[in-house]
Write a structure and sequence with these properties.
By secondary structure, this protein is of the alpha/beta class. 42% of the residues lie in helices and 12% in strands. A 5-stranded parallel beta sheet has the order 1-2-3-7-6, sandwiched between helices. Helix 9 links the parallel strand 6 and strand 7. Helix 1 packs across helix 4 and helix 5 packs parallel to helix 6. The two termini are 16 Å apart.
Amino acid sequence: MTDDELRHVATEIRKGVLVGTHAAKSGHPGGSLSAADILAYLYFEEMNVDPVDPRKADRDRFVLSKGHAAPGLYATLAQRGFFPVEELETLRHVDSRLQGHPNMNDTPGVDMTTGSLGQGISAAVGMALAAKHWGDTYRTYCLLGDGEIEEGQVWEAAMFAGNHALDNLCLIVDHNGLQIDGSIEEVNSAMPIADKFRAFKFHVIELADGNDMAQIRAAFAEAREVTGAPVCIVAETVKGKGVSYMENQVGWHGKAPNDEQFAQGMDELSKEA
């Protein structure tokens, strides 16, 4: 797909985030919107996946380590054809396949159940190690939040990945600078993020604008060429990207739009499409 086509997909994903959280009257739009461009690139350009056969053995794996950004993942999977887009309106409803955090047992296209922050990367490392052990060719991708990497388990997993040269593993840190209680600087800064992953033997790619499709494309192209080390892409993004009143506002980490806000957000996104 061209960059323009991928940007259109990202806009549709953002609309899906608003649809889901508005219908649920709860959820996490901010960090879903910041990651929409990366998710669009992963599922429509980068990864080997098949909506007709979600569990095919040679598929690439994706782990949403920041599991609260499930609205973004669900909107992406719906756009990719894993289930109907209309199902996004069931987000967080009783008996829905789309619960507040991803569930691999219920939702087509979800490779790992996540939610407890810091644990998803460990699962991703295990997947990458298994591929090496069995001689499988699939790659594993894992999206982390910059607030999430304050968790110690993240660094245990990173140490293992670096020491075992898991060059079939690609981490992406959604560095939007905000977490539920405030800025990462105020809460417990993990900076400098890039240098920390380099110290853990990662090949690090820094994206000045992680919402820019051309930069995203270049980053994943570079990641594919890396051998002998896992990759970490540190992407500078905008929390709430695409919806004016949500952008860079910590209050939209975990709050749903009301009817008026939903209408405004959908109107803004429609003008981008």
